[in-house]
Amino acid sequence: MNITIITVGKLKEKYLIQGINEYLKRLTAYAKVEIIELPDEKAPENLSESEMEQIKQKEGERILGKISDDTHVIALAIEGKMKSSEQLAADLDKLATYGKSKIAFIIGGSLGLSNEVMKRANDTLSFSKMTFPHQLMRLVLVEQVYRAYRINRGEPYHK
């Protein structure tokens, strides 16, 4: 399984980088995981609705440029589907069973994802109705992907 995490914005916080790297190291036993960081657009305060859409559009074009036609895309969005860890594990297992070996998780910038990215997504995922920094979502996502593989292999992992 090839998993790509496409994310907008640079990760600077050392503690998040360390946590993500730990889970990426653990995941090497199960899948090839790549993180693609794309530059974010500067988004000053007090943007108009159309300016926000323009920023999401530019970021969305960069995101879509990294996705091949045969990739199953899961967009992280607050309005996405909420799933348990077991449900995410079952979804990943089903994708592998049906020959979907390329999966891309998309984490947008501070303004979210463009309509074009949401249309390209095969599925959506929400970890909560709360808003989280997109940098923190990277850590949460790689941990949940790792947990999903442990669940699917019947291997113990703290609950």
Automatic annotation (TrEMBL):
Domain of life per record: Bacteria
Signal sequence range: none
Compartments it resides in: Cytoplasm
Catalyses which reaction(s): pseudouridine(1915) in 23S rRNA + S-adenosyl-L-methionine = N(3)-methylpseudouridine(1915) in 23S rRNA + S-adenosyl-L-homocysteine + H(+)
Record-listed E.C. numbers: 2.1.1.177
Keyword annotations of the record: Cytoplasm, Methyltransferase, rRNA processing, S-adenosyl-L-methionine, Transferase
NCBIfam families on file: PRK00103.1-3, tRNA_RlmH_YbeA
Entry similarity comment: Belongs to the RNA methyltransferase RlmH family.
Subunit structure: Homodimer.
Stated name of the protein: Ribosomal RNA large subunit methyltransferase H
